[in-house]
Every structure is written in structure tokens, then in C-alpha cells.
């Protein structure tokens, strides 16, 4: 088969790119390794920047987001004796929207189905060929039969463990990694959120985050040792530990209930440069991973897609300048969001091996944040998303 663009990976990056390209009359196919139900069952991000919301509207799938998403004008940071509200709207004029990644993915699938854009699930052994030539192609197995896609460009949206990045020769790739000595244990529960806005809590026992999907569905996270598995934590143990890490007023009103999902994710910062090799382009987690503390992973995937869709559309109008600058443009934003995610992670987690000095630095920074509009503005500007 022949398509103008072959997209590897049907997560949010790959699906959104396909939709934006189809809207511009460019024919793209998505190859996804997993069944659709599996992709839709993965509970991941929940906070969308305004830039991502605008992109979803531009792609024609803003209706459910606008009806069911919850606009948040601020967040609470509770640490080192302060309980501090960061007022996004007052400080930056912008807001974020709470709307689950699963819902974004569901909306994307529905629209791609409606317009007949192909998404091939359970594509096995996806292999990229000739990405550094003028005639790239991709092979894969589907239903036991070998298949081949000839295309003009390949886009790797296949996440951190995908094949696309590793197709770029090691001599070309520059990888930068920082691994944190803990993970996040997350649970989803059909309980009311403890507070109308997200609460990021820094505590000597470890970080905690109270998030939500809607007024009846809460998402909570605890910093845990990397060796902990979800089955090591009963629901009761989770709620007890969460209560210990929250300010007393919130701990008292915390509504608990059975978890309907429980998982542990390791924390990592990772960036692979460049994001282009010949006719192969990388977008989203395929090229970079951030620790979840600043809620940037999904939003960065979306900004890559915004840049790349513009560049591919310009290419089809005879202008290659945006394709040529894609890697540099995307990486400039990726590094800044990575810096923010890293600094939020350093500010709010317990690093038991680093002694008392870091804890005092964290306390000093929180104290400064509490008293400085400039410091709050810097945090808010990054949290709501740097300009595209
Ligand atoms: P992905 O969503 O990873 O999609 C990649 C797709 O490629 C997958 O569907 C995968 O099945 C497919 N694929 C992989 N290999 C192949 C192959 N060889 N062939 C074909 N297809 C392949 N971000 C936040 O902002 N907040 C959070 O709370 C948060 N929680 C997270 C929890 C977990 C466990 C993880 C892993 C990530 C989390 N993230 C979070 C990050 C956020 O979800 C990602 O940044 C976002 O999903 C990136 O989208 P993507 O499309 O680039 O990659
Ligand atoms: C969620 C996850 C995050 O990493 C974050 O910073 C905020 C919210 C969430 O899953 O709701």
C-alpha cells in the first residue's frame, strides 16, 4: 500500500497528527501495535494546556472537551508549612483544562473513524526501511500476513519503547537521561476530589498529588520506592499514607473508596536529539520523557505534533523550511518543559539520600515562592504552557 505519511504508534501524538494531516488533505496511515481497547484503558495524563485544547478544537474535536472538560484557574502547592495557591489566570491570563488522556484518545479515534482515516491495530514487527533515502518504506505483520507501506515521510510516535528512535543510527543520536530514585503509585477512585483544584503536596515522607478527572472521579499519586509494586499497596494503606502527606484540613475531609485502577510509573527525564533523520521524524514520548510532576508529557507530545503538522503541510505546498527546522524548533520547547518538570520534581519530592541540605533548599524555595509574585508568575507561566 502507499500513503503520503506513515505514522508509527496510535497514542495521542500519532492519532492527532493523522487527523491534522487528513484535515489538510494529506493521506496518512497509523500503525499501532496494541488493540484499541488496550490503548483506551491506559490511564495517563489529565491536565491539558490551552495550546493543546486549541489544537484539538482546530482539529475539529473540541466539542466534548468544551462540554466535559473542567477549566482550572489555579493549583495548590502545599509544602514546608505553606499552603499556597498559584493563580494561573491572574498571573498569566491563561488556564489549564482537566480532561483525561483516555478521553482525548477516544475523541481522536471517533473522528478518524468518521472520516475514514486508516488506523491499523495489532501491527506486529513494525520495521522502518530507507528512512535516510528518498524512498522510505515500512514493513509489518498483520493477521499473520506481511504488509508494506511505501511513503514520503515516516513519523515515529511510538513512545519511549518504540522502534522508530532506535532506527536512527547510534552515531547520529545524542541521548540525555536523568533517572529519579523513586516512582509514582497512582490510583483512580470514584470519589469526590478533596479540593476543587489540584493539590501538589511536598512532605518529608514523600510527594503526593491529588488530581481528578471530574467531580466524581479522583486521581491520586504517591511517591514510592522504585521497588514497590501496585499489589504491595492495599487501598487502605494508600489512603492512610495520602492522609499523612496532606495538610491537616484536607486530610480530614479526604473522601476514600475502592480503587478502580492502580499502577506504578518510574520517573525519568530523557531527551534524544535530533528529532529528525532523513525522512524520519520523531514526536512525543518517542523522542523525550519528562517526570510527570509538571503535567507536561502529553502537552509536549502535542506541541511536537503542532510543529510537525505545520511543517508537513508546508512541504506539500512546496516549502521545506519548516521541516528543516522542525527538530531545532521542537527541541527548544522540549528542553524548557524538561527543565520545568525536573525543577518541580526536585522541589516537591523527598530525596532521602541527599541529606538535609536539599530539604532546606526546598523549604527556602517554597518560602520564596509564597512571598514573591515574580516567582509564582514564573511557575504559572511554565505550568500553563510556554508559547508554541
Ligand atoms: P504513547 O502514549 O506512549 O503512545 C505510543 C503508542 O505507540 C502506544 O499506543 C504504543 O502501543 C505504540 N507503539 C509502541 N511501540 C510500537 C511499535 N513498535 N509499533 C507500533 N506501535 C507501537 N503525562 C502527564 O502529563 N501526566 C501524567 O499523569 C502521566 N502519566 C503517565 C503514566 C504512565 C504509566 C506513562 C507511561 C506516561 C504518563 N504520562 C503522563 C505521559 C503521557 O501519557 C505521555 O507523554 C503521552 O502518552 C505521550 O503520547 P505519545 O503518543 O507520544 O506516546
Ligand atoms: C495528573 C498527573 C500529573 O502528573 C500532574 O502533574 C497533574 C495531574 C493526572 O493524572 O491527573
Automatic annotation (TrEMBL):
Tagged with keyword tRNA-binding: no
UniProt KW keywords: FAD, Flavoprotein, Monooxygenase, Oxidoreductase
Occurrences of domain FAD-binding (ranges): 3-341
Molecular function GO terms recorded: 4-hydroxybenzoate 3-monooxygenase activity; FAD binding
Keyword flag Nucleotide-binding: no
A GO BP entry: benzoate catabolic process
Gene3D superfamilies for this protein: D-Amino Acid Oxidase, subunit A, domain 2, FAD/NAD(P)-binding domain
Domain of life the protein comes from: Bacteria
NCBIfam families xrefs: pbenz_hydroxyl, PRK08243.1
PANTHER family: P-HYDROXYBENZOATE HYDROXYLASE (PTHR43004:SF3), TRK SYSTEM POTASSIUM UPTAKE PROTEIN (PTHR43004)
Protein name from the UniProt record: p-hydroxybenzoate 3-monooxygenase
Species the sequence originates in: Gemmobacter megaterium
Lineage, opening ranks: Bacteria, Pseudomonadati, Pseudomonadota, Alphaproteobacteria, Rhodobacterales
Amino acid at each position: 500500500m502507499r500513503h503520503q505519511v506513515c505514522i508509527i504508534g496510535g497514542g495521542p501524538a500519532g492519532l492527532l497528527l493523522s487527523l491534522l494531516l487528513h484535515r489538510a488533505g494529506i493521506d496518512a496511515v497509523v500503525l499501532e501495535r496494541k488493540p484499541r481497547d488496550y490503548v483506551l484503558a491506559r490511564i495517563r495524563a489529565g491536565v491539558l494546556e490551552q495550546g493543546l485544547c486549541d489544537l484539538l478544537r482546530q482539529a475539529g474535536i473540541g466539542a466534548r472537551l468544551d462540554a466535559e472538560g473542567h477549566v482550572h484557574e489555579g493549583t495548590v502547592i502545599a509544602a514546608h508549612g505553606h499552603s499556597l495557591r498559584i493563580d494561573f489566570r491572574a498571573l498569566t491570563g491563561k488556564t489549564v483544562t482537566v480532561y483525561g488522556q483516555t478521553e482525548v484518545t477516544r475523541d481522536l479515534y471517533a473522528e478518524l473513524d468518521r472520516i475514514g482515516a486508516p488506523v491499523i491495530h495489532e501491527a506486529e514487527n513494525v520495521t522502518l526501511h530507507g528512512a535516510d533515502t528518498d524512498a522510505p518504506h515500512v514493513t509489518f505483520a498483520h493477521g499473520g500476513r506481511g504488509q508494506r507501506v511505501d511513503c514520503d515521510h515516516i513519523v515515529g510516535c511510538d513512545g519511549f519503547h518504540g522502534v522508530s528512535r532506535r532506527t536512527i543510527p547510534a552515531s547520529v543520536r545524542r541521548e540525555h537521561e536523568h533517572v529519579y530514585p523513586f516512582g509514582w503509585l497512582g490510583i483512580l477512585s470514584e470519589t469526590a476530589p478533596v479540593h476543587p483544584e489540584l493539590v501538589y503536596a511536598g512532605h518529608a515522607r514523600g510527594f503526593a498529588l491529588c488530581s481528578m478527572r471530574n467531580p466524581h472521579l479522583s486521581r491520586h499519586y504517591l511517591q514510592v520506592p522504585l521497588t514497590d509494586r501496585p499489589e504491595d499497596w492495599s487501598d487502605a494503606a494508600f489512603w492512610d499514607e495520602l492522609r499523612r502527606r496532606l495538610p491537616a484540613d484536607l486530610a480530614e475531609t479526604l473522601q476514600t473508596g475502592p480503587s478502580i485502577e492502580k499502577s506504578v510509573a518510574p520517573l525519568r527525564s530523557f531527551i534524544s536529539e535530533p528529532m529528525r533523520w532523513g525522512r524520519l521524524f520523531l514526536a512525543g514520548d518517542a523522542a523525550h520523557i519528562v517526570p510527570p510532576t509538571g503535567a507536561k508529557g502529553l502537552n509536549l507530545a502535542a506541541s511536537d505534533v503542532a510543529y510537525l503538522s505545520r511543517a508537513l503541510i508546508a512541504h506539500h505546498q512546496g516549502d521545506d523550511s519548516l521541516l528543516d527546522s522542525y527538530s531545532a524548533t521542537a527541541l527548544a520547547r522540549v528542553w524548557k518543559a524538561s527543565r520545568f518538570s525536573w525543577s518541580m520534581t526536585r522541589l516537591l519530592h523527598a530525596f532521602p539520600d541527599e541529606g538535609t541540605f536539599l530539604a532546606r533548599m526546598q523549604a527556602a524555595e517554597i518560602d520564596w515562592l509564597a512571598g514573591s509574585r515574580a516567582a509564582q508568575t514564573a511557575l504559572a507561566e511554565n505550568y500553563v504552557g510556554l508559547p508554541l
